[in-house]
Amino acid sequence: MFNFISLVFKYIFIIIIYLFIFSIIRLIYLDIRSMDVSAIDGDAYLKLINRIDKLPYKIKEHYPIDGELTLGRHSDNDILIKDPFVSKKHFQIVEDEGDYYLEDLNSANGTFLNGERIEDVAKLSNGDIIKVGNIEFLFVNRE
Question: How far apart are CA 49 and CA 47, in angstroms?
């Protein structure tokens, strides 16, 4: 009887290991599939770091920056985020002579660049992380 129970637990354990490996391979596949940046026009864009399926509102993976980009809760922003920690007009990114600048628009909870709260305007570099509320973006400049 003990051998039978041991054998059953052994096969259940093997099945759990295979399901775990399958789920990891599936996550890797989904991550690689979402890395298609060929559809983005221009040199600079914001890439969402958070997982889309974990957010309670709709948001895209990539946002191209064409001269100016605004983020906030109000519908006239380029990036609309229905997060209670995001202000109506939270921040904007502006291009000036090939450089990109992040400006906080007097938001209540602040805009964070690489973990530090910005007070006015900050110059963006490739690979910078912008955090607003619970959302994190990666700034990518392909120039």
Answer: 6
pLDDT tens by residue, the chain, 143 residues: 889 899 999 999 999 999 999 999 999 888 777 665 554 566 888 998 877 767 777 888 888 888 899 999 999 999 988 888 889 999 999 999 889 999 999 898 999 999 999 988 999 999 999 999 888 999 998 77
pTM of structure? 0.69
User: What is the amino acid identity at position 58?
Assistant: K
Structure tokens at 72: 């906030």
Nearest Cα to Cα of residue 131 among 120, 142, 115, 108:
115
In the β-sheet with 62-64, what is the strand arrangement from edge to edge?
62-64, 44-48, 135-141, 129-132, 111-113, 116-118
